[in-house]
Structures are given as structure tokens and as C-alpha cells.
Amino acid sequence: MHEKSGLKIAQIRQFIDLCMQGDMTLLARYQFLDREEAALTKQINTLQAQLDFLRYKKWYFKTAVEAGTEKIHMTQDGKRVQPDIKEQYEADLAKCVDLRALLDLPDTEAAAFAKKMTANG
């Protein structure tokens, strides 16, 4: 796969073959690139959705670590996650100016939590 274009060697060869045929393949080359753009856009959208979900889960667990319990996200019966928890995250995300501060635990806090959990056995 070509690093810059993301195309497989066979695809590059196909494109070069079109180029070698001259101007009569201009539309075919444009259409080739148009299809590649659509495929990349689809991949980017899929990856963005995965990244968004991962960031939500990081926020969920960061806030649980900070509280010392996952119970902060649970309904009163403790059996389900609160139905509005994702909206809480989205509200925090909308007003945040530093994504890293919203999602990342300071090393000292993570170490303190690990120590506490080890001591509680």
C-alpha cells in the first residue's frame, strides 16, 4: 500500500495505466479518484464515530475514578447506567476548552486510585 495515497499497488498500477492512455481517460481518472475519496470519507466517518465513543467511555471511567466508584453513573437500584449519562458527557464536552483535561486522569490521581484499590483488596 502506498503510504501517501493509501492505495494498493494494483490500484496504483491501474491508475498509471489510465494515465498512460492519455487524455481520453481523464474522466476515468477523475472517477477513480472520486470513488477513492468516497471510500476514505466513509472510513474517516467510521473512525470518528469509534473515537467519539471511546472518548465518552474514557470520560465515564475518569469521572468514576475521580468519585472512587462507578455508582455515580448508576440508577438508584444500581443495576443500570443512568439514562441521561451520555447527555451529561455531551454537555461537559460542549463547554470544555481542553479535551485532554476532560478525558485524561493526571498520573498522580491514577496512581492514588490504583493504590487505594490494591489496599481495599
What key attributes describe this structure?
mainly alpha; 5 helices
Task: Outline the secondary-structure elements.
Layout: H1 9-20, H2 26-67, H3 85-95, H4 99-103, H5 107-120
Low-confidence parts, pLDDT < 50 over ≥5 residues? none
Per DSSP E runs of 2 or more residues, the count of β-strands stands at 0
The helix tally amounts to 5
Total individual domains? 1
How far apart the termini lie comes to 49 Å
What portion of residues belong to β-strands? under 5%
C-alpha geometry: elongated
- Strand and helix order: HHHHH
Radius of gyration: 24 Å
Largest sheet: none
Computed structural class: mainly alpha
Binned, the helix content reads 55-70%
Task: Write structural notes for this entry.
It is a single chain. 2% of the residues are buried. The protein has 121 residues and is an all-alpha fold. It has helices at residues 9-20, 26-67, 85-95, 99-103, 107-120. It has 5 helices and no strands. It has one domain (9-120). It is 69% helix and 0% strand. It is elongated.
What is this structure, in a nutshell?
It is built from 5 helices and no strands. With about 120 residues, the protein is mainly α. It has one domain (about 10-120).
